[in-house]
Amino acid sequence: MTGKRRPIVRYTKRIVSVLETIFATGDEKLTFDRLIEAMGPGAHRLLILMLTLLNMIPGPPGFGGTLAWTTFAVALFMVLGKPIRLPNIIGKRKLPIAPLLRGSQQVMKVTGIIARFSKPRMRWLTGAAATVPYGIFAMVISVAMTVPIPFANAVPNVGLCVLAFSMLNRDGAGVVVGTLICLIGLGVEVALVLAALNLGGSAWNAVF
User: Fold this and answer.
1) Helix ranges restricted to H, 127-207
2) Nearest to 106 by CA among 16, 22, 24, 17
3) What's the pTM value of the predicted model, to 2 decimals?
4) Which residue among 60, 68, 196, 203 is buried most deeply as judged by most CB within 10 Å?
């Protein structure tokens, strides 16, 4: 199977196509609700990939946290087996369309390269039976990514991106790699939180 025939190539082209269609309307921003409507309220796996990719693009304060909670909501509805419906506090949040489109176009090019090495294998880790465990794991990682520690969320987000990529490409080996990266990221976050608490406790004791 050539890179162009990999499932993930088709999915990333769909992401770019959706953003190009919205951009062509002249709108400078789009809401999460509109994004989900355009991608399809049943496209849970694809949306998790897209949200992790968006989380790699620099944004205003609170942008990463909003993306993390949106990922949590998408994963939750995937576990429940229901169409995605976001609460207004998330669904009405606006995203700048131009940088998202440019970033997605670059991702599509990189995906074509990565797809040469990622291929469908160990499909039992990516099939329908894996949907609920995948969704629950994505929810856990998403909650961890809401911790407001600078740069600490990068590793788990990359892991979740690799995991989402591999699930769509039916690559069980990639699922294992993505899961391990997520677990490493969680370990780093826990260590940083404990260090911050210890430092805070030491400062408190020094003052009082």
Assistant:
1) 131-144, 154-168, 172-207
2) 16
3) 0.81
4) 68
pLDDT band at 106 (very low <50, low <70, confident <90, very high): confident
Query: How many angstroms separate the CA atoms of 56 and 156, rounded?
Result: 11
Q: Which tokens belong to 123?
A: 């499909």
Nearest-angstrom CA–CA distance, 108 and 13: 7
What radius of gyration, in Å, describes the C-alpha atoms of the chain? 18
Who contacts 185 (Cβ-Cβ below 8 Å, separation ≥6)?
Answer: 141, 144, 153, 154, 155, 156, 157, 158, 159
Tell me the torsion sign for CA atoms 14, 17, 21, 26. positive
Q: Which residues pair with 94 in a beta bridge?
A: 31
Query: Could you tell me which of 89, 198, 58, 71 has the C-alpha nearest to residue 137?
Result: 71
3-state secondary structure of 95: strand
pLDDT digits (tens, 9 = 90+) for 29-85: 778 888 888 777 778 888 898 888 888 776 666 778 888 898 999 999 999 998 888
* Res. 188: pLDDT tops 60: yes
185 SS3 class: helix
